[in-house]
């Protein structure tokens, strides 16, 4: 705030005809190293499952242990992107109110609930690259240790094949050697169920 210097040009290259938002945050220096359209909103698809999990785990103390009944739906939702678990949580806990709660709790600036007419579709929640960074910064730096360890531990155990048989090891997961922890999201006209190959 109050800086007059022009931000340096992003070195990120985006192909013509592709819409992208990029925000790379260096936790050691506490600064963004790359930003390109970082406030642009995109349909979250299953990335919003991070907010569903955090909504459920909110206000848990340092001695919290996730009970088996909650593990039974949280683990498949985080590891294998299980849609049934997300559907149930969404319908049972207020739908768009979940996004309103988490936007306020985490100070998200660009996140928005699904638009009018799509309130039942959690994947239509809008997220920006910078808000995604904010979510992960909360998880890594502010969340109670049991919440951080549970969520990040499950993301580190991401299954190659999602619950709908989509190969979810693309992007970050496909570009780096383990260990990594990432929640993927996919949707759109080119999406085909059952494309997952052997592990």
Structural descriptors:
single chain; 199 residues; mainly alpha; two-stranded antiparallel ribbon; 7 helices; 36% helix; globular; disordered N terminus
Structure description:
This protein has 199 residues and is mainly α. 36% of the residues lie in helices and 8% in strands. It has seven helices and four strands; from the N terminus they run E-E-E-H-H-H-H-E-H-H-H. The protein has helices spanning 49-57, 68-79, 83-92, 96-106, 129-142, 145-156, 172-175; strands at 22-26, 31-36, 42-43, 126-127. It has a two-stranded antiparallel sheet with strand order 1-2. Strands 3-4 form a two-stranded antiparallel sheet. Strand 1 and strand 2 (31-36) form a beta hairpin. Helix 1 packs across helix 4, helix 2 (68-79) packs across helix 3 and helix 5 crosses helix 6. It is globular, with a radius of gyration of 17 Å.
N to C succession of SSEs: EEEHHHHEHHH
Number of contiguous helices: 7
* C-alpha end-to-end distance: 47 Å
Number of strands: 4
- From the spread of the alpha carbons, the general shape counts as globular
Order of adjacent strands in the largest pleated sheet: 1-2
Question: How would you sum up the major sheet?
Answer: 2 strands, antiparallel
Give the proportion of residues in helices. 25-40%
By secondary-structure content and strand pairing, the structural class works out as: mainly alpha
Strand % is: 5-15%
Q: Give the overall pLDDT as a whole number.
A: 90
Low-pLDDT segments: 1-6
Q: Over all CA atoms, what is the radius of gyration?
A: 17 Å
């Amino acid at each position: 705030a109050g800086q007059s210097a022009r931000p340096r040009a992003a070195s990120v290259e985006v192909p013509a005809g592709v819409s992208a938002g990029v925000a790379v945050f260096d936790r050691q220096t506490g600064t963004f190293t790359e930003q390109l359209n970082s406030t642009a909103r995109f349909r979250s698809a299953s990335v919003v499952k991070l907010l569903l999990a955090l909504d459920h785990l909110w206000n848990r103390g340092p001695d919290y242990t996730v009970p088996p009944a909650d593990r039974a739906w949280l683990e498949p939702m985080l590891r294998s992107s299980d849609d049934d678990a997300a559907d149930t949580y969404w319908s049972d806990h207020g739908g768009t109110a979940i996004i309103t709660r988490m936007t306020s709790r985490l100070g998200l600036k660009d996140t928005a609930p699904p638009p009018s007419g799509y309130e039942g579709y959690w994947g239509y929640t809008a997220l920006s690259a910078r808000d995604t960074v904010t979510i992960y910064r909360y998880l890594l730096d502010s969340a109670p240790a049991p919440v951080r360890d549970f969520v990040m531990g499950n993301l580190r155990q991401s299954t190659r094949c999602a619950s709908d048989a989509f190969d979810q090891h693309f992007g970050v997961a496909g570009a780096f050697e383990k260990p990594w922890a990432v929640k993927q999201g996919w949707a759109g006209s080119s999406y085909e169920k059952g494309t997952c190959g052997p592990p």
